[in-house]
Write a structure and sequence with these properties.
Strand order of the largest sheet: 1-2-3-7-6
Largest sheet: 5 strands, antiparallel
Radius of gyration: 21 Å
Oligomer: single chain
Shape: globular
Strand content: 15-25%
Number of strands: 10
Order of helices and strands: HEEEEEHEEEHHEEHHH
Number of helices: 7
Distance between the termini: 40 Å
Number of domains: 1
Structural class: alpha+beta
Length: about 260
């Protein structure tokens, strides 16, 4: 009888484990499909209107409509790439960050594509409406419903900011670049990577990596340099690419050290 009971528990455990993995796989697939749909929407939806937006350079809020969905997108035109512009401020770096985010399956950067509007190329990124700025969250001391989960997401964000060398949460200077959807399980978005990917061989000073999710750790380790080059080559020069790959190596070494020391 005990053996039969144990066997039943094993079968139930296996069944629910399989169901969980199947459900997780379905969720990832659905998320990827939604991402592709949004990218296609950004590339093809009709432009209804546009108005100037704030920020560095020339930016616009674009109203889009594909006959089924009406939405807004952020259109960035500035294209001052390195080495011609030593500091670098370009819409292309924002697209590079999104492509890197996809390679790592992070889901921190809202969909963005390159699109030509009225004869000018720029990046068109889906506009995040109704979000809470991280700066406001801190100022009003708004607590996340799941503090540990939120902390873990922010640890992944710190890793990504070091990888792209684009401090926001790290530097605590550009906290308005971090958006939180309170109505959607505190989904975190990170926007504006227009000054990212400087040719720095080191990680961001004072932006200490203290941990990351298992998924990000595994994806970083298995993501080979050639895959990164293939996706980001249109947006980064050789030196920017070389330093990105160097930072990736440093991050992987750092994470492996943390695992060895702390588990």
């Amino acid at each position: 009888m005990k053996k039969k009971k144990a066997l039943a528990i094993m079968i139930l455990t296996f069944f629910f484990s399989e169901a969980w993995f199947h459900s997780k796989s379905q969720a990832v697939t659905q998320e990827n499909e939604k991402q592709k749909e949004l990218e296609n929407y950004l590339r093809t939806a009709k432009i209804v209107s546009k108005r100037r937006a704030g920020g560095r350079g020339e930016n616009w809020i674009i109203s889009l409509d594909d006959g089924k969905i009406s939405s807004y997108a952020f259109y960035k035109l500035l294209d001052e790439t390195r080495p011609e512009a030593p500091i670098g401020d370009s819409y292309k770096y924002g697209i590079a960050a999104y492509e890197l985010d996809k390679l790592l399956d992070l889901g921190l950067v809202p969909p963005v594509v390159e699109r030509e509007i009225e004869g000018r190329k720029g990046s068109l990124q889906i506009f995040i409406e109704g979000a809470l700025y991280e700066s406001v969250r801190r100022m009003k001391n708004i607590k996340p419903p799941e503090p540990e989960k939120f902390k873990n997401i922010m640890e992944d964000l710190i890793v990504f900011e070091n990888l792209t060398w684009s401090p926001s949460y790290c530097g605590e200077r550009e906290l308005d670049d971090i958006l939180i959807m309170q109505r959607e399980d505190w989904k975190v978005w990170r926007v504006d990577f227009s000054e990212a990917f400087p040719p720095s061989p080191e990680l961001i000073p004072g932006c200490e990596i203290t941990g990351c999710s298992k998924r990000l750790c595994e994806n970083l380790i298995k993501l080979n340099d050639e895959a990164i080059k293939a996706k980001l080559k249109p947006y980064l020069n050789d030196e920017e690419m070389s330093m990105l790959l160097r930072r990736k190596k440093l991050i992987v070494e750092k994470i492996k050290k943390l695992i060895a020391e702390e588990g």
